[in-house]
Each structure stands twice: as C-alpha cells, then as structure tokens.
Design a protein that fits this description.
Oligomer: single chain
Distance between the termini: 48 Å
Order of helices and strands: EHEHEHEHEHEHE
Strand content: 15-25%
Number of domains: 1
CATH class: Alpha Beta
Number of strands: 7
Helix content: 40-55%
CATH superfamily: Response regulator
C-alpha cells in the first residue's frame, strides 16, 4: 500500500529585499513550500494563484495601501494568515495592522527561534505581537467590554518580547 503524503503548507514571502527573502526562506524550508515575490504589484496575483496558508509581508505599510490595502489583500484569500515584517516597528502601526485582521507583526531583526515560533503560532490561529501592544489591545478591549460593545475574543495572543 502506498504511503499517503500530506502537502506542506504554502508560504508566500513578499519582500523587495533579496537578503530578507533568502533569510526567511532558510528559516522555512523543510516545513513549508516557499514562494517569493519582490514586487508589490505581483502580490494580488500571487495570492490568488497560490492561496497560501501564510503570507509574510516585508513592505512598508504605505506601499500596501495602508490598513485599507491590507484588508483588501486579506479579502482575496480569507483563509491566508499574514504577518507584517518591518524594520522600524511602531506601536501605532502594529495596532492598526492587527486591527486590520493580520495575525502578526514582527521586527525584521527577530531571532530565528522567535520567528519559527511566530510562524507556528500564527499557523495555529494565534496572534503574534509585541508585549507593549498586547497590553494596549487588552486595555482597549477591556474598555469596550465594560462599555458592553464587545465580547472577549477566543484567540490567544503571543508576544515576541
């Protein structure tokens, strides 16, 4: 009887920086089927064609069309979980990215061990964010909950700091 193989999840790395793409590919090969794109203009077509399980963005948020652009990209393949990677993380940007339904936000210099953990957790449906942003979001959620506007979400949140 032939052994049945399970296909590895597809990851799309979207970065104009070849060194970043190579580094991420090295971290992911063996556990994922990895595809890369270097141009922002190729992003929509690649998502539609590949239907990746995970999408790693390494573009400035403004190149993605801001939060509205992220939401539009997410609508192309709602099952794709995404992580925004940035060289200069700011709390405001990280919060807006997470509110746009992205699953994670990582600094470009994240250690390989932390990056692998972020990928695992996001793939499992959890959220990856910095500790200070987790505190801010929990405070905001508590304020909304006390106002009776929202129920507590079931998603678990991990932080990289």
């Amino acid at each position: 009887m032939a052994e049945r193989r399970t296909a590895m999840p597809v990851v799309l790395i979207a970065s104009p920086n070849a060194a970043v793409r190579r580094r991420l590919r090295r971290e992911l090969e063996g556990a994922f089927t990895v595809y890369e794109i270097a141009e922002r203009s190729a992003l929509e077509g690649s998502i539609a064609d590949l239907q990746p399980a995970l999408l790693l963005f390494d573009f400035p948020l403004r190149q993605l069309g801001g939060v509205e652009g992220l939401q539009a990209i997410r609508k192309m393949c709602p099952s794709t979980k995404s992580i925004l990677i940035t060289s200069t993380p700011s709390q405001e940007e990280e919060i807006s990215v997470l509110k746009a339904l992205d699953r994670g936000y990582c600094p470009r210099g994240i250690t390989p061990a932390h990056f692998r953990k972020a990928m695992e957790k996001v793939q499992e449906g959890e959220i990856w964010a910095s500790r200070n942003v987790v505190s801010h979001i929990l405070f905001e959620l508590a304020s909304l909950t006390h106002a009776g506007n929202m129920k507590t979400p079931a998603a678990r949140v991990n932080n990289y700091c």
